[in-house]
Every structure is written in structure tokens, then in C-alpha cells.
């Protein structure tokens, strides 16, 4: 994945008013970022951390609007239909632009034709959690418990076809498990249900998971990443435990199709500066989010590659929705 240096991005941003006089007034109003998930999840937390830093650099307010529903499709469709002036953006992730097009045959937006890529800005690994009192000290004990009670141990996710859902399905397939899926409308309500003991397990972003595990409200069994992460240095990866399941998500910004390419480039430059802001870095660190910035073209390539990768996973799991 091509990654722009800060110097190149700053240079590109400085040159835009000269190369494109019509962009001199951009943005001329608040920039609205639609988060297609409930408030409180990792996507919401990281973009709210980014908003003040981006606003200071754009000279206009960056307003966050939560519009959840249909595995991210409701908010994403709203941006696809928005005016193509760069003032309405979607906080995209694997669900909205890689997975949904593969599992929903009547998706109300085209993930390629309806959008202008702007930039990635973060990636984050998942961890496998169990509820308090579930009585399993490690992954082996968890697997044994599920095998002993097939179809009765429940797991939550933030929607059918979400990355959290598919991560558990991948683990179940690899380990030969049968579990009961309970979908929620977002990561926050799903994790709340886990803490309350209403479901038995789930995959959750590592940052929020570490916060509740620290208080003894849940137990973390393993990290779904290729290597251990700094926030949980003593927690083994699932691969170390004999179950090599990679689980995580990415977060990026896109505008509606036909938005000015120069506006996308400027926003990419602003986001690249924003992730270097000390306050943003601290939030990312606490959330186990890895800052990642790209050019619009590199983001377009990344999404295409990610969709192809998920297509292989979904074929293997045989998941498709009507």
C-alpha cells in the first residue's frame, strides 16, 4: 500500500490553491463526516479525535453525525447521494466498502462508482473476549466449552456480515465449532451486552476491550493480529495459541463521486497532519489504533485489494444475504 510522506502531502496541499483556483474557497462551510455506526464504537472515537485537528487545519468545523443501520449501509447511502462538493464524507471501513458489496445483492449504493476515495487514517486489531463468569481461563478452555455445548454458546457482533461476525465465523470454522450469533446495531451495544452477561463471547476492537478487561468486566483470550500489540504486550495472538485467525478493521474517509479531486487531495493532506497531532496520537494509542495515511489513489487500490481478500473469506464461509 503506497503511503505518502508528510512532506509530500504538505507540499501537495500548499500547491493546490495555485493549481486549482476554484478550490481556494474549499471548504466554504462545515465538513460533515457521517459515521454509519452508533456512537461509542472505535470508528466513532477515532474520528471524533481527528475532528478538532482537521477543523483547525481546514478553517471550518468538522461535524460528526452518527447514522447507523444495515451494517453501515444507511449512512453510506446518504453520502453516495450527497452533493459532490467535498462537504459530506463517509467514515468507511471494511464493512461498508469491502464486505457489504459481497454479501448484499441489492445494496443501495455502488462502493466504487458512487464514491471518491480520500484517505485511510487508522487500522485496529480485534481481540476475543468472554463475558464475566463464563469460566474459561484461556482459549483452549473456551474451545472445549463450545464443543461441549454445540449451538448454545452465544457470540455478539455489530451486525450480520460485520467484521466482528466474520471473525468469529472464521474461528468457528477453523476450530469446528457451532455457536449462536446475536447481532447488535453497533460495537457499543454488543460489548454492553457482553459485560451484562447477555452473550458469552465476541470479537471487539482491542482498545475498548482492554479498558473493560482492566476493570475485570470481561476476559481477553487472544489477539487477532499477526503480532502482539503494544497495548496488550502479555496477551498472545490467536496464531500463537494455534488458531491463526486475523481479525481487525480499517477506517478511512470517502466523499461522493465527482467531488473535486483537488478537494480529496487537500483532505488527505489534512488527515495526514491530523494523525500527527499529539492529542490524536494519545487517543489512538489508548484505542490500539494504528495511524495510516494514504493518497486518494492509494486508498482506491487498497479498497479493491481488501474487497478481493474478503471475497475469498466469504466464499470459504459460504455467507451471502438476501
From TrEMBL:
The keyword Signal applies. PROSITE patterns: TAT (PS51318). Keywords: Signal. Pfam families: TctC. Residues 1-24 form the signal peptide. It comes from the Bacteria. Belongs to the UPF0065 (bug) family. This is Tripartite tricarboxylate transporter substrate binding protein. The lineage of its organism: Bacteria, Pseudomonadati, Pseudomonadota, Alphaproteobacteria, Acetobacterales.
